[in-house]
Design a protein that fits this description.
single chain, mainly alpha, two-stranded antiparallel sheet, globular
Length: 374
């Protein structure tokens, strides 16, 4: 991870060339060949390591969405048509959001457009301006708005993710609400500690991010698979028909529901923004063969649980967790949300670095806290 401070004499920030974007630092990096899609030099072990690294950094944010996304969307949906359609429709919307926004848009389309191996909104803006050979006000505005939206995601994600994990103590066995007053202070304390350690560097802990997040995704998949059998009719949600039907019947409320559903794809920008860290192939493989199946199973499992037990909609994720593993799962969820928050912080640093390079922010000196990054 890296920090930033006001520019000194040797700030070392490159000239403001809109056709160039800076290298991204602070996370494991793919070779130049792999980043450009020509990588035969990276061996199987190296590619597997990049996939595990990508799981921890790239997918950390989107991996915490099952903690809260379905709960919020179904809560709004029940103000409309209600019934089974509220559940099946929301799960259908969540699944197709993953398929359209993440898989189609990012994995199969946007990742084809890289700026010398780098991705992200500002890299795409620079690439587009370079392609047309002049500065375009429209492209500039779109790029700045995209970066602003990324920053806004970075503001809400740490708070909502960590708080959603700590809220699991409400349903913890043997607690009975006695710890409720401590939920917000504990979540705030974790976030404060996370930001305080940035100056010391997180490279040592970063080695654990991938394995911990991989275990988290496996847990999501297994829990979801188990609970799908609570009501297998939830498999109807794989058809987009139910999602569209919910939106049509709910009218304007459908837009509110859709806004909540899009919490399921928070962090999707990381697939493109972190392309220069790990390369296209590891990110695509990690998403298609591991992360997407685990998320899909979990959302289907949450939906099946709510169909079988409507009361579980108050906190469907934690209602899935067996009491025997509740506390370990709570610890794992907290670790996963901290990792997701760290990924957002790293992403915000990368966007800031690119914005400085493009002249969108004042020149600043970049201080790298990792000895392995220049």
């Amino acid at each position: 991870m890296a920090g930033a401070s006001p520019q000194g004499e040797d700030g070392g920030v490159a000239a403001n060339d809109p056709s160039q974007t800076p290298p991204v630092t602070g996370t494991p990096t793919a070779s130049a060949a792999e980043a450009h899609g020509h990588g035969h030099a990276v061996g199987k072990a190296g590619k597997f390591g990049l996939i595990i690294g990508a799981i921890g950094v790239v997918f950390g944010d989107i991996g915490t969405s099952p903690l809260y996304a379905l709960r919020e969307a179904i809560d709004h949906a029940r103000d409309g048509v209600g019934g089974d359609l509220a559940v099946v429709g929301v799960v259908s919307l969540a699944f197709w959001a993953l398929m359209v926004v993440v898989t189609a848009k990012y994995v199969f389309f946007l990742m084809r457009a890289d700026n010398k191996g780098e991705g992200g909104t500002l890299a795409l803006m620079a690439l587009a301006q370079h392609a047309i050979g002049r500065r375009s006000a429209l492209i500039f505005i779109l790029g700045v708005c995209g970066a602003a939206l990324f920053y806004s995601d970075g503001i809400i994600t740490p708070a909502i993710s960590v708080l959603s994990a700590i809220e699991g103590v409400k349903d913890a066995p043997g607690v009975g609400g006695s710890l409720d007053p401590f939920i917000v202070p504990v979540a705030a304390g974790i976030l404060i500690a996370l930001f305080l350690v940035q100056a010391r560097g997180t490279a040592g802990l970063a080695k654990l991010f991938g394995p911990i997040t991989a275990v988290w995704f496996l847990s999501l998949g297994v829990l979801g698979l188990i609970h799908i059998f609570d009501d297998v009719s939830i498999l109807r949600a794989l058809s987009p028909h139910y999602g569209v039907e919910l939106l049509v019947k709910d009218g304007f409320l459908g837009f509110v529901i859709l806004g909540s559903v899009f919490l399921a794809v928070t962090g999707a920008e990381a697939l493109y923004a972190d392309m220069g860290h790990f390369g296209k192939s590891p990110i695509r493989a990690g998403w298609l063969f591991f992360v997407l199946p685990c998320l899909t199973l979990n959302y289907l499992g949450q939906g099946a649980l709510i169909l079988d037990n409507p009361g579980a909609s108050e906190n469907p994720f934690w209602s899935m967790v067996p009491q025997a593993i509740y506390w370990p799962m709570l610890g794992l969820a907290t670790a996963a949300t901290v990792i997701a928050s760290q990924a957002v912080i790293t992403g915000a640093f990368s966007v800031t670095q690119q914005a400085v390079q493009l002249g969108l922010l004042p020149r600043i000196q970049i201080l790298n806290t990792s000895e392995s990054q220049a």
